[in-house]
Amino acid sequence: MKAILRAQDLGKRYGRRWALRECAVDIPAGHVVGLVGPNGAGKTTLLKLAGGQLTPTSGRITVLGEEPAAGPAQLAKVGFVAQDTPVYAGLSVAEHLRLGARLNPGWNAVLARERIERLGLDPAHRAGKLSGGQRAQLALTLGLAKQPELLILDEPVAALDPLARREFLQGLMEAVAEQELSVVLSSHLIADLERACDYLVVLVDSRVRLAGPVDRLLATHRRLSGPRRDPGRLPGDQHVVSASHTDRQSTLVVRTEGPILDPAWTVSELTLEDLVLAYMEKPAGRPVALEVQR
């Protein structure tokens, strides 16, 4: 399957500080990908490298089979909406659309106009007078009307209220269905990822700890609770992701392809938030990456 984003030993350094180091990931096309991780994990740096705003210090990254920003044709294939949903406060909605048409050769003026009408945005209103949710929708409209093959969204709803977040994500999912584009969405809000994403990448300390289709990841992870025991004594097909213990009880999150046959364990399924937290809590210095395909 075609990869929309492939990174190999990717690193970015600012002076002596590495913002991203030894990052490796291979994301297939046709998904809405949730990129999640703690602050400082390197999510924004990875997305800016993918968008061509930054150049790598080490390693290599390709987007849609080419180096980011390799030329006008490559730039036209990728849309990018940054964390602060950038729009120009002094420009009207209509002026934003005209600017988008001038800058993007594949611009779909009908899509942009119809989406603005559907959102109820007055073309004459300046962006600086719009609400946060409206500015986010305008930025999304600019990204979609470009008609990219890949749309990159870096924390686009972080500052929005719950209703505005829901409306933004609903509009995104409608566009994905209509335009058949791939999306990489960075967010701290697991509920938003559950609502929108069918593929997950967990980035911790610059390294990909987990990557794969959401339904497959949830199907291959379980929480085990039972009498205290050494996790190292579990069967070889049960990989321990995280473990906590009291004097008498152990609680483990494990990855396994098979059934849990030990009757001493109480077995429960994980939510997406449980899964993400289990991998985010993994101690630094243990770069165990898991990539699960269908």
Write the SSE topology.
Elements (H helix, E strand, L loop, with lengths): L2 E12 L2 E12 L3 E5 L6 H9 L6 E6 L8 H5 L1 E4 L11 H11 L5 H11 L12 H14 L4 E5 L7 H18 L2 E5 L3 H7 L2 E6 L2 E7 H6 L1 E7 L11 E7 L3 E7 L10 E3 L3 H9 L9 E2 L3
Parallel strand pairs: 3-7, 3-8, 5-6, 6-7, 9-14
Antiparallel strand pairs: 1-2, 1-4, 8-9, 10-12, 10-13, 11-12
Helix pairs in contact: 4-5, 5-6
Keywords: ATP-binding, Nucleotide-binding, Transport
Organism: Nonomuraea typhae
GO molecular function, one term: ATP binding
Structure commentary:
The chain has 294 residues and is α/β, with parallel strands linked by helices. It has two domains: 3-212, Rossmann fold; 220-291, no CATH class. It has nine helices and 14 strands. The protein has helices spanning 43-51, 72-76, 93-103, 109-119, 132-145, 162-179, 190-196, 214-219, 272-280; strands at residues 3-14, 17-28, 32-36, 58-63, 78-81, 150-154, 182-186, 199-204, 207-213, 221-227, 239-245, 249-255, 266-268, 290-291. The radius of gyration is 21 Å and the shape is elongated.
Structure summary:
The chain has helices at 43-51, 72-76, 93-103, 109-119, 132-145, 162-179, 190-196, 214-219, 272-280, and strands at 3-14, 17-28, 32-36, 58-63, 78-81, 150-154, 182-186, 199-204, 207-213, 221-227, 239-245, 249-255, 266-268, 290-291. With 294 residues, it is an alpha/beta fold. A seven-stranded mixed beta sheet has the order 5-6-7-3-8-9-14, with helices on both faces. The chain has a four-stranded antiparallel beta sheet with strand order 11-12-10-13.
